[in-house]
Amino acid sequence: MEVSECLTQLKGTQMAKPSVKLVQEWEVAYESGLVKVSYGTAVFEQDYWKVENRIINKVQYFYGESAWSDARRRASDIDFGAWSF
To answer: Is residue 3 part of a domain?
Structure first.
């Protein structure tokens, strides 16, 4: 197979996002009465971040390069003190 054929086949493909179920252990980065922020490893170190909104009992997961900043932003919307982690 020629290089151009390989590139054509690879074009538009992305690495599959690993399941959050692969995270074995969650480390707490920030915790208050309003919110709890944790991170875990599925494939790459700290590739998943979890924000637990304790007011409405909702959990949100963030994955990838921007997961940390996305989780921090979401948590600080609930509790401004979370901006410090």
So the answer is: no
Examine residue 45 and state whether it is found in any structural domain, yes or no. Answer: yes
Q: Read off the pTM.
A: 0.79
> Do the domain assignments include residue 54?
yes
CB half-sphere exposure, 4, CA atoms < 13 A: 0
Number of structural domains in the chain: 1
Per-residue pLDDT tens over the stretch 22-54:
999 999 999 999 999 999 999 999 999 999 999
d(Cα 37, Cα 26) in Å, to the nearest integer?
A: 9
Instruction: State the Cα–Cα distance between residues 22 and 42, nearest whole angstrom.
Output: 5
Domain that holds residue 54: 23-84
- What is the number of alpha carbons within 13 Å of residue 85 lying toward its C-beta? 26
